Amino acid sequence: MKHLIFTCLFNLVLVSLTYAQNKQYPWSQYYPEYKTQPAPQPGSSQTGTYYSGTTYGGNAHNSTTITTPSGAIYRSATTTPSGTQSYYAPTGGSNYNAASGTTTYSSAYNYYEPPVPVIPFETQQLGFTRVWQAKYKREAALQQEFAQKGLNYPPAGMFIRIFKRDQVLEVWVDDTGSGVYEKFKDYRICAASGVLGPKRMEGDKQVPEGFYRVDDFNPRSSFHLSLGINYPNVSDRLLGVRSKLGGDIYIHGGCISIGCVAIDNNKIEEVYWLAVQARNSGQVQLPVHIFPYRFNDPKHQNLEGLYARHEPLWRGLRQGYDKFEATRTIPEYFFSPEGYYEFW
Question: In order of start, what are the domains of the chain with their CATH numbers?
Answer without folding.
Answer: 14-111 (no CATH), 121-343 (2.40.440.10)
